Hints:
There is one protein chain. The chain contains eight helices and nine strands. With about 240 residues, it is α/β, with parallel strands linked by helices. The strands form two sheets. The protein has a seven-stranded mixed beta sheet with strand order 3-2-1-4-5-9-8. The chain has a two-stranded antiparallel sheet with strand order 6-7. Helix 2 links the parallel strand 1 and strand 2.
Amino acid sequence: MFDVDGRQHKARTMVAVLEDYFDGPVNQRSVLNVGGSAGIIDDYLSRHFKSVVGIDIDADAIEHAQRSFSNPNLTFEAGDAMNLRFAEGTFDVVISSQVYEHVPDAGKMMEEIYRVLKPGGVCYFAASNRLRWNEPHYDLPLLSVIPRPLAHLYMRLARKGDFYYEKHLSYWGLKRLIRRYSLLDYTRAVIERPERFATDYMIRPGSAKARLAAFVAKYFLWAAPGYIWVLRKPDPASPR
């Protein structure tokens, strides 16, 4: 929540991807960041977009964000991703970055995001894959892969908690989750062009890690540890 460098890195990638998608500056577009937590990402986004609303169900995190950031085009409020208070067709962009696995009903969240997007609007969707070696929240190998009763036991034995609440989906499960949207997959692009999409802090150009990641993204996308997708709500008035 409070890792300034890490969250600003993520925000730079969001801006780079969305500017690439829209083919230019995004300073006339409105944004809703679902699950924005303590506001670091929202603050960065507010320097690039016309307006930014950050919501999170964690009231303490929202209070921290309200105390810490006061840009005139930036607002924060406590809110439930599965029951957004905004009217249909409110936002040009909705950010959902590493959120779906924390929500009791990810399908309902994606329906709500779809509802509040304007026709032709997009969701920046960053998501972890269930089929990955290391679970990112608890740093435990195969935690997200094994059956849930065993995952609970694994958490207790590792003294990481009593229950494993996160509900990760596989590549195919994620595709089903976003089936109402048109999908543009940026995963391979952000791996192969890390300087362009501000991911060079994570993938050093020319490194063995970069070559391996590019190989997996090209030939075994289902096995990639995570994805960056732009999800478009269809617009009957636009051919795109």
